[in-house]
Structure prediction request, 170 residues.
Amino acid sequence: MNKTDVELRLHPLFAARDWDFRRLCKLGAAFVRDRPVTPYFRPRVLRKRPGVYQIDGYVGVIDQEFERTRIRSAARPAGGHSPCLSLNIANLKPLLGVQDIHEISAEKNLKAFADTVTGLMETMPHDADALAAAFAKNMLLGVPFENYAVTERHDEFEALRRFVSREAVR
Prediction:
């Protein structure tokens, strides 16, 4: 087992819950649903020691209309575009006990991880009104929205906040 194997073994577990691993709006590949507004999870597998891996990564919400507009008007950063709302999963307490994947119990560990992440994703906004409501509460997955804003891209985060509030009015 290696890092790639761990990530690839996540794909059918997420697909069984209707989360596809794909790119939306020229963003990096992530587990998403092809909807105008969708939660996402972008995994990153780390090797902790022989036979033990840790799934790290980012969660957030993609508003496809906003992201398409933002990406069209922005210069391409060196690492490519990433979603405007992005939080490292290490900040989510429910995931702290399920991120480690031991080779000897990989299937059980991967299932527990996928169940937990997809369960969290189901509670996240799936439409513009729900995203606007989350912004109004300033909370997503029990974490203040400001924690989702990448420091050097705070202007983009504020633009998303304004866009979502206008979009919900329509």
